[in-house]
Every structure is written in structure tokens, then in C-alpha cells.
Design goal:
alpha/beta; TIM Barrel; 12 helices; 13% strand; binds flavin-adenine dinucleotide
Amino acid sequence: MDASRPSRFINAGKPRGIRVSFEFFPPKTAEMEQSLWEAISRLAPLKPNFVSVTYGAGGSTRERTHTTVKRILAETMLTPAAHLTCVAATCAEVDAVIGAYAQAGVRHIVALRGDPLAGAGEKYAPHPGGYRNAADLVAGIKRLADLEVSVSAYPEKHPDSPSVAADIDMLKAKVDAGATRAITQFFFENDLYFRYRDRVRAAGIDIPIVPGILPVQNFKTTKTFAARCGASVPAWLADRFDGLDDDAATRKLIAAAVAAEQVLDLVDHGVTDFHFYTMNRADLVYAICHLLGLRPSTVTGNSARATAEKERA
Ligand SMILES: Cc1cc2nc3c(=O)[nH]c(=O)nc-3n(C[C@H](O)[C@H](O)[C@H](O)COP(=O)(O)OP(=O)(O)OC[C@H]3O[C@@H](n4cnc5c(N)ncnc54)[C@H](O)[C@@H]3O)c2cc1C
């Protein structure tokens, strides 16, 4: 019997150096705005390392991303990271967005190439006057401001990429340009992550490769989403949700169990940082973080950000 397993739960208050970050998307409607802020309020006391806000395809959410990030800065103790893509925009347009973030007090950007305007799967062509790819964008950000830059990584290969090796070359280019953290596309088989991490390390890349964890809020939606971004959905996962289409309460329990199993296995393999795709909902993510030993802090408000950042340094 593995004696270390029960201690994860029993010694939950004991610091294990686990760090989490949460990803949100900018809301479209007043109702969505309300659920986003309910999720942020619930998750903020867990003192995430940072929270990130996505950027809609082709910059379609530019204003909404900016507004959300600014509100996080103004009303919470959280450290926001703004996602940014270079699709369908000139370098000058993208630079203006970077400048506006820097001026608003944003210190962290998640730099991405982005999907073609016609949608993922279509052939990508950079804007003639724009950044060519994510590595080029990272270099552009670094030229403009001293910001922390995170980038993407794909344990199962990006759908456009000819091979994992080409993917890792791109990751290397992004790191050489100044990226200091990679966040992975979501995956359900941890072995995919471990194998990828080994290959990344063998290529001499030593930045953290933070696993992106997607709690399965809705299995059908997850399957569609996974097909679009080249993530595999194992048969065992489908099996776990089989027959539960009309049973939301059980689905939620299963989703929590699946995600808990995944993150605890990653912890067993030495992973300490986790990035959660929250889909703007707190419950499952909050429960998984609790299981990871994170407890809410009662300190809130803008003034606490400096303390939180100091603690994290
Ligand atoms: C953590 C994370 C956050 C994300 N956030 C957002 C977001 O906020 N908004 C959004 O729109 N999208 C987002 N995406 C999705 C991302 O924009 C798409 O996956 C996009 O297709 C690639 O962008 P990238 O920065 O990952 O690309 P890159 O890192 O530039 O490329 C990914 C891989 O694709 C290959 N590749 C790239 N271009 C080509 C090409 N022309 N020909 C052949 N191979 C090529 C490269 O080998 C590379 O390894 C996110 C993805 C992740 C993992």
C-alpha cells in the first residue's frame, strides 16, 4: 500500500508548494458577466499565481478582454495575464494593445499565434504587416515592455504542426524570444504530458511546462472542443459519462473525480503548477483546488496584491 496517498488529504493544510492559475473568457452578455464575476469571487481567495483572460479569434474580444483584465486589476488582489494573438492585425495594431496593457498595469501576457479567421483547421496565413507567429509576437512584446510572457504547448502536437519535433522547435523559438512559462493544451492521459515534458527537457528547454486542466463540465461539448484543437478523448472517459445525459448531479461528481484523479497523479509525478480552464465556472475547479490542499485566504482587496506577489516571488 502507498502510505503517501492518504496524507494528501489528511495533511491538506500543510504547504506542498502547489501553485494554480485560472483561465477565464471575456463575457458577451450581462448575464455571462455576472457568472464570470461569481466565479472570480469564489476562486480569488485561493490566491492563484495568476488569472488569465482569453482573446477571441481574430481579436474579436479585444475590448472585452481589456475591460475584464482592467476590472480584475481594479477590484481584486489577483494578478491578471492578458492573452493576445497576432491574427488579422498589423504589428502596429498589436503593439498598441500591448502598450495599453502595460499602461494599465498588466505585467503578464499569454502570447499566441491564434487560429485563422475562418476557424481552426483552415490554413493559417500571417497578416502581411503582422507578426508571423507566436515566437515573433513574444519578441515584439519583449522589445516593447518588460512583461512576463507565457506561451502555449501541445502534448499531442498542434493540428497544424507536421510533427512533435516541429512543435518543440517552435516552443524553443518562443523561449529564445523571451517566454518563461508554457501552458499546455488540455489532455486527459497524463502519459501524453510526461512523454512531451521529457522531449521538451531533452531539447534543452527548461521553463515550466504547466499542465492545462479542463474539468469536464459537459462531456459532449468537451468532445467537440477537443476534436477542434487536436486533443484526444480516451474511450475510458466516454465510458465514465456514459448513460448520464439526464443526470447532471452525478455528471458533476464524476467530473470532479476524473479531474481529481488526473491532478493527483500529476502531483505524484512531481508537478506543482496547474492551469485550470475554468469555462467561467468555479465549482469543480474550487473542489479540485481544495483537494490539492489550497484553502481560501480571508485577505481581499486591491492592496493585498503586493503582499500576494511578494509571497509568490
Ligand atoms: C494555453 C493556451 C491558451 C490559448 N488561448 C487562446 C486565446 O486566448 N485566443 C485564441 O484565439 N486562441 C488561444 N489558444 C489557441 C491557439 O491560438 C491556437 O492553438 C493556434 O492555432 C496556435 O497558436 P499558438 O500560439 O499555440 O501557435 P504557435 O506556437 O505559433 O504554433 C503552434 C504549432 O503549430 C505549428 N505551426 C504554426 N503555424 C504553422 C504553419 N503555418 N504551418 C505549419 N505548422 C505551423 C508550429 O509547429 C507550432 O509548433 C490557446 C491555446 C493554448 C494552449
